Amino acid sequence: MEAAHGYAHDHGHDHAPTGLMRWLTTTNHKDIGTMYLWFSFSMFILGGIMALVIRAELFEPGLQVTEPEFFNSMTTYHGLIMVFGAIMPAFVGFANWLIPMQIGAPDMAFPRLNNWSFWLLPPAALLLILAQFAPGGGAGVGWTLYPPLAVQQGLSMDLTIFAVHVLGVSSIMGSINIITTLLNMRAPGMTLMRMPMFCWTWLITAYLLIAVMPVLAGAVTMLLTDRHLGTHFFNPAGGGDPVLFQHIFWFFGHPEVYIIAIPAFGVISQIVPAFSRKPLFGYASMVYATGSIAVLSFLVWAHHMYTVGMPVQAQLYFMFATMLIAVPTGVKVFNWVATMWKGSLSFETPMLFAIGFLFLFTLGGFTGLVLSIAPLDVQLHDTYYVVAHFHYVMVAGALFSAFGAVYFWLPKWTGRMYDERLGKLHFWLSFVFFNITFFVQHFSGLAGMPRRIPDYALQFVEFNAISSIGAFGFGVSQLLFLYIVVKTIRSGERAAQKQWEGADSLEWTALPSPAPYHSFETPPVIR
Amino acid sequence: MQLADAAQPQSHLPFARRIDPRIMLGKAARAVAGALLALWAGFACAEWRLGLQDQKTAVGEAIYDLHNAVVLICLVIFVGVFGTMFYAVWKHRKSVGHQAALFHENTTVEMIWTVIPFLILLGMAWPATKTLLDQRDASAADLTIKATGYQWKWHYDYLQEGVSFYSNLATPRAQIDNREPKGEHYLLEVDRELVVPVRKKVRILTTAADVLHAWYVPALAVKQDAIPGFMRDAWFRAEEPGVYRGQCAELCGKEHAFMPIVVRAVTQREFDQWVAEQKSLQAVVAGDAPAAAEPADGKGVYDQICQACHAAGLAGAPRTGDKAAWAPRIARGEAVLMQNALKGIRMMPPKGGNPGLSDQQVRAAVAYMVTQSK
């Protein structure tokens, strides 16, 4: 960030523009990674504010803060912004910063494409924000955009559809870049099976993205033509089928879950060995497990729609296939625990977030197993149990992993060390408030509280009040994170080249802190 | 159906309901204080249910037991895995001088922790499959009811009995807007309940008129999406008499939270009686009962139909006898009143949701209400 800026001037041959033009025209993987991360954080705050509007309304029964239409649009854009604006760009940011450094490359394979993939994001975000101000307000359909409700919506729906198109284009270009970089730009001796786990997870994720983003684009395009061009893909009056959209959406949507989770696995697979001072247990099986999860993710989509009334045989197939995912996911968790076993453990902030991830993501995995069982899902589908489940996976999973990654690599990026005491405080606040917010939602869901409602029956009062208090605590705690990062950049202590004793990937062993603007001008020697 | 009262200005801006920040702040402070108090009081007497609702069907019982079993197995695994991890966290710390071992793979161990979870899953899949097959077998039903989702109410058709009606939210708007204390069954009460015989296999056919809805009653273990243009089915067999409450479970627009489902399970005798009453009521409404030959009886129609909303002022309807509410309406003339009653207005469906009424009957009922409210 700051430091990377400093390095721009070390290379006289760059003639890089300064100021705003520098960021608009940059083709440097570190600059672009930094922009991805700041963009992601600002979207995280925006999506977080929307979440707090939701929780404020749900603090008490009755309508207090919002009209139902506005409430519905908050749930819609909270979901879209967090998934497409916050979590996905955060991990693309890590990929940009880390992949060239970890494989011994000077930069990404397609630097200009890289610039363009980032600069598509702000216009897409703008479309999502503009949708709030369209006549009639934002679309109140949920992030899943199910028709026919989505066909009923106003202009905001079209803006949202275009935003999804643009985000999809950005993701596909980013993925092409990552795959090409990983397959072609590894330093001599850096064989595929020697790549750091983070690179492996991104290789797999990038393939997933290329496979499913066009599917989502297709689904929303069909929605668009149903809305404006008189097609009847999802309109039963013209021979269409509303459920078709759900099949297409979840054929994208389930791999999407792993697009978010798999890079998070990669981060955890870097952090846990570093603070255990012991190599990752079962590297090869981790690679295979990740690959199996990716393949299985294409075969289980309809477990998101057990209640549409599909034939019972289909329900059985999707139930068995979904339960099977527990096996490779279990392997990963066991391997992480085995990595810690008989290590020499220390608990700096990144490790705390990694352990928090392990603990809570596994909980989310178990509730996932419960939901995978079709007869049980009939009680839990579209209730707060599902909300609790996917927030354990998305927040305690992906977001905690992203926080861990920032604390882990911040010394490498900025050349400065964060405040360890504040970092730990941030972890504990996040951990406690996260559980206050989401653990109780399991109970509301089991008792039958549907999701996406602005008002609820009186048996859900206590758990909702607790959840809302937790949510505001969690939200405020994230301002501490911003403070810690800014403080590190401005006045953190100098970081060592190998800040973490147990870190062993190239960015720590072969590059100084902060990392030079162009990572490797000559390929490093991999032993 | 629109819950919003016409008197309340509708904002098209995507902002909060009341925009004055001082009022908002005051309200927020009072809300927080009140809620903390309520919370504290709630903690003392709350039910604190942590699991599924008590199940009233055999399939529901099976689901309940299956859930408990799966959670128990998960809990054991969780304690095992994280017991191991926290042992390592405690004993294998650098700060207690533990030296890192060098092992980083072990094929045997990895085989074991691939195969054992697989076997556990097989153990879970067996009862799950049995329960699922039972749950989805809606054949040989004693009674078939079609449930049609509308934005935002349910319509029920008893296919063999020929009884059909709309079922609307009965909670007054004032409770939702916090102007009145909330009743016991807040948001889970309807004007007309779905009445079914107990210990009979009831098949619910679901469909929808506009967008997706889902027919969900937790205690009966039924959740079935209602899809426009398609018919799906589900079934339940209530084992004991009682009232079972649920609500729409698929986002269907702004009043999604306000279209509950209430099922009343009664004995076969009571059910037959109820069906007979409904049929005679419908006959009167449809105008083929002997009474219909005589001049339209305004009070009769009112007592059977209009009073459902107008007696208590539900759903924004002006209460019969409430002169203040009626005066401006009466002032607009009989033609406008008639027009509204025939075509529907705001939450009121055309002819109060009874298309079988003749225009004359509607006119008589309107005249009756006007005389009562002058």
Please give a structural write-up.
Chain A has 527 residues and is mainly alpha-helical. Chain A has helices spanning 2-8, 19-25, 29-58, 68-103, 111-119, 121-131, 149-152, 155-184, 197-228, 242-276, 283-296, 312-324, 326-340, 349-372, 374-380, 384-414, 420-446, 461-491, 506-509; strands spanning 416-417, 493-494. The two termini of chain A are 31 Å apart. The two termini of chain B are 27 Å apart. Chain B folds into three domains: 58-93 and 106-135, Helix Hairpins (Orthogonal Bundle), CATH 1.10.287.90; 143-282, Sandwich (Immunoglobulin-like); 287-373, Cytochrome Bc1 Complex, Chain D, domain 2 (Orthogonal Bundle). In chain B, strand 6 (213-217) and strand 7 (222-226) form a beta hairpin. With 374 residues, chain B is α+β, with helices and mostly antiparallel strands. Chains A and B meet through helix 4, helix 10, helix 11, helix 12 and helix 13 of A and helix 1, helix 2, helix 3, strand 7 and strand 8 of B.
Domain module tally of chain B: 3
Q: Residue ranges of chain B: pLDDT <50 for 5 or more in a row?
A: 1-19, 289-294
What is the name of the CATH architecture of the largest domain in chain B?
Sandwich
β-sheet strand percentage of chain A: under 5%
Instruction: Name the poorly predicted regions of chain A.
Output: 1-12
Radius of gyration of chain B: 28 Å
